Amino acid sequence: MASPLCIRGGRVLDPARGIDRVQDLWIVDGKIAGLGEDAPADVRSNRSAEVLAVQGAVICPGLVDIHVHLREPGQEEKETIDSGTRAAARGGFTTVACMPNTDPPLDDRPRIEYVIRRARECGHARVHPIAAVTRGQMGEALTEIEELVEAGAVAISDDGKPVRNAEIMRRALELTRPLGVPVIQHAEDPDLKGDGVMHEGWTSTRLGMKGIPDAAESVIVARDALLAELTGGHVHVAHVSAGRSTEIIRRAKARGIRMTAETAPHYLLLTDEAVEGFDPRTKMSPPLRSAKDREALLEAVVDGTIDCLATDHAPHTDFEKDSDFDSAPFGIVGLETALGIYVKALVEPKLLTLPELILRLTVNPLRVLGLPGGTLEAGVPADVTVFDPSRRWKVRAEEFASMGRNTPFQGWELPGQVLMTVLNGRVTFRAETLLASAR
Amino acid sequence: MIGTRKDLLGLEDLAPEEIVSILDTARTFREVLDRPIPKVPSLRGLTAANLFFEASTRTRLSFELAEKRLSADTVNFQTSGSSVSKGESLKDTARNIEAMGIHLVVIRHQSSGAPHYLARNLDAGVINAGDGTHEHPTQGLLDIFTIRERRGKVAGLRVAIIGDIAHSRVARSNIWGLTKLGASVTIAGPSTMMPMEVERFGIKVAKSVEEAIEGADVVNILRIQLERQRSTLYSSLREYARVYGITSARLKGAKPDVTVMHPGPMNRGVEIAQDVADGEHSVILEQVTNGVAVRMAVLYLLAGHKAPDESAAEHPMPKETKKAHGEPSLHPRR
After folding, report:
1. Assigned domain for B130 exists
2. ipTM reported for the complex, 2 dp
3. DSSP one-letter code for B202
4. Phi and psi at residue A36, in whole multiples of 5°?
5. pLDDT digits 0-9 by tens, B174-206
6. Ramachandran sector of residue B130 (left: φ over 0; alpha: ψ -120 to 50; beta: rest)
7. Domain count, chain A
8. Which range of residues forms the domain containing residue B19?
9. Residue B301: inside a domain, yes or no?
10. Which of A193, A202, A207 is most worth mutating to test chain B (most B CB atoms within 10 A of its CB)?
11. Does the annotation flag B228 for ligand binding?
């Protein structure tokens, strides 16, 4: 037996098992040994155990983000698998699913295998690659979906752009149905989007910016709901931004259609008014929408219409984002601010309890991908996150582990400071100054 | 006040009294333009750079003329949007300007907010000469200046703006300026060219061009462009001319002494009929002349916090001005 790790005195939240109590969490040999008295006596009496006191903090299953861009291979100036997974650990995430819009895209077995291998070498987070729906993400010919899933892809998506062709979407859903993986759709009609750069509404009218109507998203969501019903396949809607989309998803679920959805932190805290100063750090796809959309998203997160909370972590270089609005690329980073934003947007206004939030950041995203885990049950790999929900911290992009500094939340004070992240029983991040070693 | 500002980025940012102050200053420069030697030393020793990332003839000429009439040194940089990688060039341009010690930058750019980017990154004063479909503040000012000269006031006037409001920076600057000065603005055009929630500007949206023109003191006609990616917005120029073109017959609904304006360049026979363009109500060429005076006023006022050389500072304004409009705020501070 290696030296056990004891995380002492925190509030253990394991919502999938209905656990919410102050207790020690014991970890040994990379696995959860047990909670409090349930941990084996020889573990608890082991003199070489490391004990970390985390009074007042929450101990929960490692957080899961099913929507990140790690940029490798091909765009290592923006992010690498190493830097992106370090950012995940720093943000409290132990598992991420990465999008295939790399250069070249993840559309064949060697690239999928490369990502998995590279992530293992880095060892900061579990990385599940998502494969492209179409070759080169060109929207024309399907990839070898069965082989890609066999190689380890947990879903398919052409994220960055939608699967525009309804016939291809239909066939992708038919082919993935027996494999049990979802087709993740970036729902944004390219014709309605045009060369739009922000939400179409009063702010875009005032700023003279080309608008993207909310319907650009919702028409694709509606179409895909119909295709999911036709095929029995599973559509997962990425980064839902529009209130109208939540209505469609809610109705689709009520009809028994296999449709799941995620949203991203910024849509719950910001609106299109944030674009006011033409700051490219407020430019992402889909765009920040109206206050009404934001309200509808919060409601959909609360009632479960939106199953899980992701980040759409999309790093870019400072140079690309330091420009006029139109020229800047879409996307912002999210891994290192997500937990704080979700606590601020959902828990502080009492829309969700902490266990309800954690469910949407652990078990729910794993379920979307058909993956096990997300609990602190004895014997499972010890993926654990420790955070202080009430401790406030200041966002300093210059301190990010991510190579991307493109966040609209620079300088914000957020609650929910991550104290420690544990992957397979190994500490991948610890806020040194905040953690007291005991014994 | 305008005299303390570093930049002019849009009329949305200006208080009514700042707009009036610019218009008053422009009037004194308008007088300068009628002199035998239409030149003053106000900006001697200062350098203005005209950066045109988007093709323009008259606005660039108008600015250059205004700068020269104020005795500034001028440099021009013109590029088409496609020949330069946009974001890259803007950042590099900013760095170059900084390195060259330029005092005032006039920028036209195809991207809304590009002047704001420069303004944030430069100590030099930045004047927006048209950014994307956002604002074209000096055009708005020269239109309002022309209206005030013609009709003696702005408050209470009924102004109709006809055309593609969604893609018009001229429309936005006019709407901000006119409403701030108390005019009542009505717009008309194809519904595909009306931006979302446009009535929140505090203006009326007419159902037809006839309704917009009814009883108008001023009709401002926007240039219509159906090229580029705008082909889905409307069927044809022919149909546009038939439904929205301003003809003498349509103009009969306006006040008998209506003032007809167009920011140019005109598509004669499309948005404006030949006889209207050249008719008695048209002030289109006056707008061009006034444009130089208005741009002189803007350059002069923004240069207020730069430091022109000794001799220029001694004669900051034409002599007549000091008598007529001697507010201290108009003088460059040292």
Report:
1. yes
2. 0.91
3. T
4. 50, -125
5. 999 999 999 999 999 999 999 999 999 999 999
6. left
7. 2
8. 2-135+287-307
9. yes
10. A207
11. no
